[in-house]
Description:
The protein is α+β, with helices and mostly antiparallel strands. It has helices at about 15-30, 45-55, 60-70, 85-95, 95-105, 115-140, 175-185; strands spanning about 70-80, 150, 160-170, 190-200. The chain has a domain at about 15-70 and about 205-215. It is about 45% helix and about 15% strand. It has a four-stranded antiparallel β-sheet. α4 packs across α6 and α5 runs antiparallel to α6.
Amino acid sequence: MVSDSSVKQYESTRKDMMAHETVIETVMREFTLLPVRFGTVADSASPTQDIQKLLRSRFEEFHRLLGDMEGKVELGLKAFWRDEKAVFGEIIAENGDIRKLRDSLSGKPPEATHFDRMRLGEMVKEALNRKRAKEAAEILLPLRPIAHRVRENEALVDRMVVNAAFLVDKTREPEFDQAVSELERQLGQRVVLKYVGLAPPYNFVNIVVNWEELR
């Protein structure tokens, strides 16, 4: 699916990104979709020929990806600790070495304890990552069997526990919804879940177009 466009560098403004997203979501209602990143423009004197060359040269790749995405949807789940301070308190309580080092720095001037404070920060970060990995595994455990594929993305902030995308058969979407609802019931006092359904499968399709390679 293509359209005429000015040859320019499109900025990733909210307005333009939302317009792009609206088109993609509309197409998704009727067709299996392989999304291409925002701002992909054939900027030559013969863009139609460039697109035809692209489809011919990468036919097998696109055909395979279409088969992989057929009858599936991408669903997203983010989980955040509800009380970040409480989690850091747990880390202090559970780790004697961290607690001992923290107490040893109490009342001392920062300039005299610079490296020890850096070490303390590293220890806390390592402990936080271990706690995050453990709780993320527990959250993902009932969801993995329902999904065809799972992609775990990087946590963007300290209080984020899970940042994951799931490729799920459309027929199993209600089952997945129910599993997320059950997680929310069980873990709602500890974590906040943000569930996004029916997203373009960007996490499972990464199509980068280099027009220069086609010329």
